[in-house]
Write a structure and sequence with these properties.
Biased composition (Basic and acidic residues): 1-12
Protein name: Oxidoreductase molybdopterin-binding domain-containing protein
Distance between the termini: 22 Å
Largest sheet: 5 strands, mixed
Keywords: Membrane, Transmembrane, Transmembrane helix
CATH superfamily of the largest domain: Oxidoreductase, molybdopterin-binding domain
Strand order of the largest sheet: 2-1-10-5-6
Pfam family, one: Oxidored_molyb
Domain Oxidoreductase molybdopterin-binding: 78-224
Helix content: 10-25%
Length: 247
């Protein structure tokens, strides 16, 4: 799925044998090798990365793509990187003023910071995760949603992933076009430079590598929803799960 996955936060444990242990050559070489290859083949390397993290008393595993409690994961074999020179976000569809924004344009807009738990539909949870970005409602207001607009569809520059929200959901205060995560710019492995963040819903709704925001006349189920996941993905009230809410 197009969400980050937990590494279990296994940092080698807190017993006396683990604390202060010297950096092992195999650990360092393993981290370097996985870090270099992880962006290209993240989904297939996850098992190998997990093995390194479980035996890493150093904390260096946090430097891997997907460290810090999250995993690199994608529905495609690879995703092109985009940055200052070539990233654009298009707002179109049933709007009066279609527009294309670059990173500098998004950074110049008023930002909102949210801190909530992140909950994946597969069960893992990362507590108190800060996200910061432009409220989606502000972009929709600037574009001028036409009266027939009822929903919003999201496209991603991985070329495969899509998501959707009702217009009412998209206008919530806790839905962001996010540029920062954990108080740093969002890196490529976490869906950067720009991703969607839908705080009260399961993390598959927070589409990575966001490239298009399209206002539509009806909800268009996203990638995983076409394969059986709930379209209305409220944490603890969907997908047959009873997790505590994140909001």
């Amino acid at each position: 799925m197009n969400d980050d996955r937990d590494d279990g936060r296994n940092d080698g444990g807190d017993d006396e044998e683990t604390r202060g242990a010297p950096v092992g050559r195999r650990v360092v070489l393993g981290l370097l090798g996985l870090g270099a290859a992880g962006v290209v083949a993240g989904p297939w390397l996850q098992r190998a990365q997990d093995a390194v993290v479980r035996n890493d008393p150093t904390g260096l595993s946090q430097a891997l793509p997907g460290g810090g409690g999250f995993r690199y994961y994608s529905v495609t074999a690879s995703v092109p990187e985009r940055g200052e020179a070539d990233y654009t976000l298009t707002v179109d569809g049933l709007v009066e003023r279609p527009t294309t924004l670059r990173l500098a344009d998004l950074r110049a807009l008023p930002q909102r910071r949210l801190v909530h738990d992140v909950q994946c539909v597969t069960g893992w949870r990362v507590p108190a995760t800060p996200f910061e970005g432009v409220p989606l409602s502000a972009l929709l207001e600037a574009a001028g949603v036409r009266p027939e607009g009822r929903a919003v569809s999201f496209g991603c520059f991985d070329g495969a992933y899509t998501e959707s929200l009702t217009l009412e959901q998209a206008r919530r205060d806790d839905v962001l076009v996010a540029l920062r995560m954990q108080d740093d710019p969002i890196g490529h492995a976490h869906g950067g430079p720009v991703r969607l963040y839908v705080a009260p819903m399961y993390f598959y709704k927070s589409a990575k590598w966001l490239s298009t925001i399209t206002v539509t006349d009806t909800v268009r189920p996203g990638y995983w929803e076409r394969l059986g996941y709930d379209v209305d993905a409220w944490v603890g009230r969907s997908n047959g799960r009873d997790d505590a809410p994140t909001d």
